[in-house]
Write a structure and sequence with these properties.
By secondary structure, the chain is an alpha/beta fold. It contains nine helices and 15 strands. Helix 1 crosses helix 4. The N and C termini lie far apart (67 Å).
Length: 304
Amino acid sequence: MTRNDRFQEVLVFVQIAKSGSFSAAGRALDLTPSTVSKVVTRLERKFGARLFNRTTHSVRLSEEGKALFQRASRVIEAMTDAESLIEKFSLAPTGQLRIYALPSFALSQLAPVLPEFLDANPGIRVDIQLGTENIDSINSDIDIVLRYGRPENSRLVSRKVADSSWVVCASPIYLERRGIPESPADLVLHNCLSFSLQTMAVPWSFKSMPEGLGIEGNASSNHAPMLRELALRGVGIIRVADFVVANDVRAGTLIPLLSEFTSKLDEPIFALYQPQPGGSQRVRAFTEFLHRRFSKRPWLVAAP
């Protein structure tokens, strides 16, 4: 006998106890009177006791039946609550969504639009952790990882939600003082503020130098907004994602450099998450929102 069969027996038993009639229980559960009677017979054989005292006018629980009814009712209530919860999850996304995101993208792009997502999904609570490490969401409590590039040989599902490109730029103050580089080779004469991972500077790549150019400067950081702040103050030249400095470039407080040497779309941003049967409503809602808001690179469009 399967678990479904056993649950059906318990359901029939509880319905008889509540209605006080085999026929009424059958009508409520869309079962024939003979089926209801057979279920009771099986239960009484299984427990070795009479569960109902029957007369021509009534069906009442025996002492053994009362003891079983107390426990069986709790089983039915638990199953009903579980079914209601599943139905609730299937109708609208609810629960906590844990996100691990690049600080530069989260602060400059995600934070301004997150209220829109939360208003549209009032049942979701978000917990956003920021970092640049390539973490594995399968071995953590993270639901979605936002990072540059699609990982190789990963068990995670990946969906591209945005494209970005690198921008080399500096403030007018710095360029007045140090001059404008005409080619990537000229950067050796400049103070270049590098992005660093675990204290190692990331080389700057260009069309003519895909292997990367080693640069030097008196400051580095693993946080692109920090590099942006230093560049705005005239400390040096930076190379960051376009969404970090789009507003500054538009305002003229940072000047793009070496544009003809840089690729246009070389840093896609992916949402990575664990594969799930049927998919998670929370994950699906959030990745759809990210794609809708960022796939057309809205940071390149001037605000009205």
